[in-house]
Design brief:
The complex is a heterodimer of chains A (790) and B (162). In chain A, the strands form seven sheets. A seven-stranded mixed β-sheet of chain A has the order 3-5-1-12-9-10-11, sandwiched between helices. A five-stranded mixed β-sheet of chain A has the order 7-15-14-13-8. In chain A, helix 16 packs parallel to helix 17 and helix 17 crosses helix 18. Chain A is 29% helix and 24% strand. The longest helix of chain A is centred in the C-terminal third of the chain and has 28 residues. Chain A has 21 helices and 28 strands. In chain A, strand 26 and strand 27 form a beta hairpin. With 790 residues, chain A is of the alpha+beta class. Chain A folds into three domains: 155 residues, Aldehyde oxidase/xanthine dehydrogenase, molybdopterin binding domain (Aldehyde Oxidoreductase, domain 4), CATH 3.30.365.10; 193 residues, Aldehyde Oxidoreductase, domain 3 (Alpha-Beta Complex); 331 residues, Aldehyde Oxidoreductase, domain 4 (2-Layer Sandwich). The longest helix of chain B has 15 residues. Chain B is globular, with a radius of gyration of 16 Å. Chain B has two domains: 76 residues, Ubiquitin-like (UB roll) (Roll); 72 residues, [2Fe-2S]-binding domain (DNA polymerase, domain 1, Orthogonal Bundle), CATH 1.10.150. Chain B has a five-stranded mixed β-sheet, sandwiched between helices. By secondary structure, chain B is α+β, with helices and mostly antiparallel strands. In chain B, a hairpin with a 2-residue loop joins strand 3 and strand 4. Classes of the chains: A alpha+beta (790), B alpha+beta (162). At the A-B interface, helix 1 and helix 19 of A face helix 2, helix 3, helix 4 and helix 5 of B.
Chain lengths: 790, 162
């Protein structure tokens, strides 16, 4: 068999996006744009209390209001009050309390759903909520994870008699032996604060019986139409083959739309019950309390090393806030971080323990990076602290301990095998772009002169694990689904190509990038390729988009399906050209007889022959299409070096990112323009955790940051431009050599920023700064250090 | 109910509206101009930005009745059919959008910014777009887009089409 010859390829080019034309002209199809005849709109009465008994609930008053079609509490809803699923029971003895869509007898978080009203307009539904009578008996709210674990604490779920959801341990090597050998042990407690994903498009869901059959079509602003279809079938009892889930234009996700939400369950069940379209769109204020949150871990981390800077072992003890309930992968998020605390460093031992804790807060779940930003933050912070402790330059300490490029593939102490990497090359390039030595000199000068604005240099040499995931690995971790991805490629009789993918984009540019991959193999122009996605009716198989998996896994399926299509076409072309298949070369989308370029047939012509089927070789079926379902052989491990020059005004606590340089190695790049955009956005979200964002609760469990007026996501005026660069070390676990880029920036940037602030202030006695490092927090930290020095 | 007449993207619409109805809800629900979107309920995000008599406003902070007798331009009316306004062309060229949800508001705010300041510096662009939030791009390429659009517009109207 001859191989495909690629003379002109779209791979690796910064092709402008196909997606942009409709988005830039307002010709969009957001879920909330859908207005079906006869729609009823759902509004939700939410709990204003974090923990309370519902002593009275009467929805009858709402039914008397103009335009109201129906109103339900949990009692009225009965069997249609589905339970929100969790698919990752991480231990055999994990506590998994029920999470009914509408609260039954008790509310456990501000924002819990208590009742719903359905009316002929959204405004009428909201107005009628005021006519529902509800009484609460307030109970003590569980808001502090450590207090939650003490005996005698109030319980979030009485029936499980504890607030501990699970304890997960992973001992690797003998940490106590490493500790005994160590000259230096540095221990720190870091608070990885709670964040709110805050995608720009609020969630929206429309469900409608579609008339022709028993099908219910569900449009949802989701990252996971395929997974959602399976889960809705299991939860609602509606046969899976009667459900079609469509994710139309989706305005961001960042993990926040990787979920099977209670509102999706309610809308689906009520459309079926009422026999008409039901629609719900959240307000931003609802979004802040009812969309899952991320992070929220207390991290106790201890590193043992020799006095000359050889890392011997690492111990990590986490408290991970589950919130009030378990959602799709709530318990598993800390475990995605578990493997990554040892990061790029060689060591003898690693001891990990995580306790999941229930509190009366919004459930946590995946948020951009999901476990890995937390891990990277803790390890990159503690490495800087170790450097300070032993008086070593922090980059030198990293170089002394990292895996060198000639040691790959390398199996880490946590048991992962990193396929490739070159930390030296990325770091060398970043240092040059940054003018590291020049900035160190300026830092020394500012310290010497007692400048009120001090300069710090923050380093983050990170790696991450992406491309979820080998199905067997997921099974071993008790995750109940696989990690494969599917693609079907069809050559249509008119010469156009359809690439049907199971990935589900919401800003990542899959339509453009997947066309580039298929184009490079099929020799068909990018503009003649249509990528079909995010609709279980048109793309029946898929595991969707999260965990930087779409290219890392889905890209493999596109490549494999495209190559299979070429081989199917080759047999037909050989028949047409009256030669043997092995005599054909495939060049620029055309089969040519070797040595006789005058005899050729283009792929489009082959597709037409397959369509008419007038002259196919014996045994070849009509139509030209090929499928591939790929289970990845392993994860992939992007890495990079991020450097932040931080100016800190010691008199006001004001912090400024003066310069941000990052060199990321995400392997081969399909579209470097999209890669760079992903890095920009990722870095911005990581900086936002370091400097601006934090979901704050009071002791009664009220979310104090429940609007965009109170929860500070940065604007253009709050951020700098970024100096980005790349190195390319191809992955060996992926046939295209690609890794993944969706989360890299977010994982890397947070510790770079905080390390930079601490570095600017270390001579004042500062050894840590809490996140978000607001001017007030930084100023107080400086004052506390001064007090401590007295 | 109040009686209003508003010209939206060149078409005159006459409508009975509740006095409490926001302009953005009227655009989306009553006349089907769904290109303009809602991103928050506190007037922070700017996703709903339109031009009202040529100046940018957040259409969630204007009542429909206040737009009576006015000209409204939305992202759908910025250019004709398949034509591209230079700001639209620049956002595509510079990858100034990812998910695209903030884009209608961001583009309209940028159009207004450039009408006021045809050659803004980076910091003037950043300050000028402060009222429009984006969660995908980190703003880096949005700033580049607006700067590039300024170049296109100063080079003359024919250079904008892409």
């Amino acid at each position: 068999m001859t191989t495909a010859v690629e003379t002109e390829t779209a791979l690796g080019k910064p092709i402008r996006r196909k997606e942009d034309a409709h988005l830039l002209h307002g010709q969009t199809n957001w879920t909330d744009n859908i207005q079906l005849p006869g729609t009823v709109h759902m509004a939700i009465l939410r709990s204003p209390m974090a923990h309370a008994k519902i002593t009275k609930l009467d929805v009858s008053g709402a039914l008397a209001q103009a335009g109201v079609v129906a109103a339900y509490g949990a009692k009225e809803l009965g069997d249609l009050n589905g339970g929100v699923p969790c698919v990752w029971p991480v231990t055999d003895d994990i506590k998994m309390p029920a999470f009914p869509a509408l609260a039954i007898d008790k509310v456990r978080q501000v924002g819990d759903c208590v009742a719903v009203v359905l009316a002929t307009s959204a405004a009428a539904a909201v107005d009628a909520l005021d006519s529902i009578v509800v009484s609460y008996e307030q109970l003590p709210a569980v808001t502090d994870m450590e207090a939650a674990l003490e005996s005698g604490s109030a319980l979030v779920h009485d029936e499980i008699e504890t607030n501990a959801c699970y304890v997960y341990k992973m001992p690797c090597g003998d940490y106590e032996a490493s500790r005994a050998k160590a000259d230096v042990v540095v221990a720190r407690r870091f608070i990885n604060q709670r964040l709110i994903p805050t995608f720009m498009e609020p969630r929206s869901v429309v469900a409608a019986p579609m008339g022709m059959s028993d099908e219910i079509t569900i449009w949802s602003s989701t990252q996971i139409p395929h997974v959602l279809r399976v889960l809705l079938a299991l939860v609602t009892g509606i046969p899976e083959n009667n459900l079609r889930v469509v994710a139309p234009d989706v305005g961001g996700g960042f993990g926040g739309k990787l979920q099977c939400y209670r509102e999706e369950i309610l809308v689906t069940n009520l459309a079926k019950k009422l026999g008409r379209p039901v629609k719900w769109t959240e307000t931003r204020s609802e979004n802040m309390v009812a969309t899952h949150h991320g992070r929220d871990q207390i991290q106790d981390i201890e590193i043992a090393a020799t006095k000359d800077g050889k890392i011997l072992g690492l111990k990590v003890t986490l408290l991970a806030n589950m919130g009030a309930y378990l959602q799709i992968i709530t318990p598993g998020v800390p475990l995605l971080g578990m493997f990554m605390y040892p990061a790029i460093y060689k060591m003898d031992s690693y001891d990990f323990t995580c306790t999941g804790v229930f509190t009366n807060k919004t459930p946590t779940d995946a948020y951009r990076g999901a476990g890995r930003p937390e891990a990277t933050y803790a390890i990159e912070r503690i490495v800087d602290e170790l450097a300070a402790e032993i008086g070593m330059e922090p980059m030198e300490l990293r170089k002394k301990n990292w895996i060198t490029h000639d040691e790959f593939p390398y199996t880490t102490v946590a048991g992962l095998t990193y396929d490739t990497g070159n930390y030296e090359a990325a770091t060398e390039k970043a240092l040059a772009m940054f003018d590291y030595d020049g900035l160190r000199a300026e830092q020394a000068q500012r310290r010497a002169s007692g400048d009120p604005v001090q300069l710090g240099i923050g380093i983050s040499t990170f790696t991450e694990m992406c491309g979820l995931a080998p199905s067997r690995t997921l099974g071993a971790l008790k995750y109940v689904a696989g990690g494969w991805e599917h693609c079907t490629v069809r050559a249509l009789p008119t010469g156009k190509i359809e690439v049907v993918t199971g990935t589900s984009p919401h800003g990542q540019g899959h339509e453009t990038a997947w066309s580039q991959i298929a184009s490079s193999i099929l020799g068909v122009p990018v503009e003649d390729i249509e990528v079909i996605h995010s609709d279980t009716g048109r793309s029946p198989y898929g595991m969707d988009t999260y965990g930087s998996r779409s290219l890392a896994v889905g890209g493999q399926a596109i490549k494999a399906a495209s190559e299979r299509l070429v081989e199917k076409a080759r047999v037909i072309a050989a028949h047409q050209l009256e030669c043997s298949a092995s005599d054909l070369e495939f060049i620029n989308g055309s089969f040519q007889v070797k040595g006789d370029p005058s005899k050729s047939q283009a792929l489009g012509a082959v597709a037409f022959e397959a369509f008419t089927a007038h002259n196919l070789p014996p045994g070849v079926e009509p139509t030209l299409q090929a499928e591939a379902t790929i289970d990845p052989v392993d994860f992939s491990y992007p890495h990079g070096t991020h450097l932040a020059a931080m100016e800190v005004d010691t008199e006001t606590g004001q912090v400024k990112v003066r310069k941000y340089v990052c060199v990321d190695d995400v392997g081969m790049q399909v579209n470097p323009m999209i890669v760079e955009g992903q890095v920009h956005g990722g870095v911005a979200q990581g900086i936002a955790q370091a400097l601006f964002e934090g979901a704050e609760y009071d002791e009664d469990g009220n979310l104090l940051t429940a609007s965009l007026a109170d929860y500070l996501i940065p604007s253009a005026a709050d951020l700098p431009s970024f100096d980005t660069g790349t190195t390319v070390t191809p992955s060996t676990t992926h046939p295209l050599g690609t890794k993944g880029v969706g989360e890299a920036g977010t994982i890397a940037s947070t510790p770079a920023i905080i390390n930079g602030i601490v570095d600017a202030l270390r001579h004042l006695g500062v050894t840590d700064v809490a996140m978000p490092a607001s001017p007030q927090t930084v100023w107080r930290t400086i004052q506390a250090a001064k007090e401590g020095a007295k | 109910m109040a009686h209003i007449t508003v010209t939206v993207d060149g078409t005159s619409y006459t409508s009975e509206v509740e006095p409490r109805k926001l302009l953005v809800h009227w655009l989306r629900e009553d006349i089907g101009r769904v290109g303009t979107v809602v991103g928050c309920d506190t007037s922070n995000c700017g996703a709903c930005t339109v031009l009202l008599n040529g100046r940018s406003v957040k259409s969630c902070s204007v009542l429909a009745v206040q737009a009576d007798g006015c000209q409204v331009t939305t992202i759908q009316g910025l250019s004709d059919g398949n034509e591209w306004h230079p700001v639209q062309a620049a956002f595509k060229e510079c990858h100034g959008l990812q998910c695209g949800y903030c884009t209608p508001g961001m583009v309209m705010a940028a159009v207004d910014l450039l009408s006021e300041n045809p050659k803004p510096s980076e910091s003037e662009i950043r300050e000028g777009l402060e009222g429009n939030l984006c969660r995908c791009t980190g703003y880096h390429n949005i700033v580049k887009s607006v700067s590039y659009a300024a170049d296109l517009m100063s080079a003359g109207p024919t250079k904008g089409a892409k």
